[in-house]
Write a structure and sequence with these properties.
Blueprint lengths: L2 H23 L6 H11 L2 H7 L1 H7 L7 E5 L7 H8 L4 E6 L2 H14 L4 E5 L1
């Protein structure tokens, strides 16, 4: 079998498996009730202690004034530290596929007075 045929075979198998993988990966986010439970997990004290947002963001070596995308922002656990690292001239784009997660992230940003965060549903 030639390389092109092998590559096309691989691509067609991967393409066919993609919806199954996406469905499985998002199983815990399928309903408002399961997302509410996920919000509890995302914001649990033990998870935040393990995540160490300030340390994580500091290791990214973000330049003030840059634009950073927090893809899959969830409830926005990194927004405060990203916003501080970027400074007032920088931008954080917080993206998630669930409006309820974005609502929670917006609420956190508002409570913290973050002015350089834009929210995107996608």
């Amino acid at each position: 079998m030639g390389f092109t045929r092998l590559l096309l075979s691989f691509v067609s198998i991967a393409f066919a498996a993609w919806p199954q993988a996406a469905k499985e990966a998002n199983r815990d986010y399928a309903t408002p009730a399961t997302r509410a439970k996920m919000i509890e997990r995302l914001e649990s004290a033990s998870r935040l202690a393990n995540l160490r947002p300030a340390e994580l963001v500091s290791r990214l070596e973000i330049r003030p004034g840059s634009t950073v995308v927090d893809l899959g922002t969830g409830t926005g656990n990194l927004l405060k530290d990203l916003s501080l690292a970027l400074g007032p001239k920088g931008r954080v784009i917080a993206e998630d596929i669930h409006e309820d997660f974005l609502d929670r992230a917006r609420q956190h940003a508002k409570t913290l007075g973050l002015k350089n965060v834009d929210f995107v549903l996608g």
